[in-house]
Write a structure and sequence with these properties.
64 residues; mainly alpha; SAM-dependent_MTases_sf
């Protein structure tokens, strides 16, 4: 099948980006991650959230 035939037979999709799409798209740029790692408030907050969530799940078997 030629590419032209495939494209002609394929229905035209009309996708609209949601607010979630815009949010997650912003994390595609490495500069955002550099900013987070350099930020003196954000990184410790993430660390604290991770450590606290580990305490909440202690004694709970997790499926990997």
């Amino acid at each position: 099948m030629a590419q032209e035939d495939f494209l002609r037979d394929w229905p035209q999709l009309k996708l609209k980006a949601s607010s979630a799409d815009y949010y997650f798209e912003s994390y595609n740029h490495y500069g955002v991650h550099e900013d987070i790692l350099r930020d003196g408030a954000t990184l410790p907050a993430f660390q604290q959230a991770i450590l606290q969530s580990r305490k909440l799940g202690s004694g709970v078997e997790r499926e990997m």
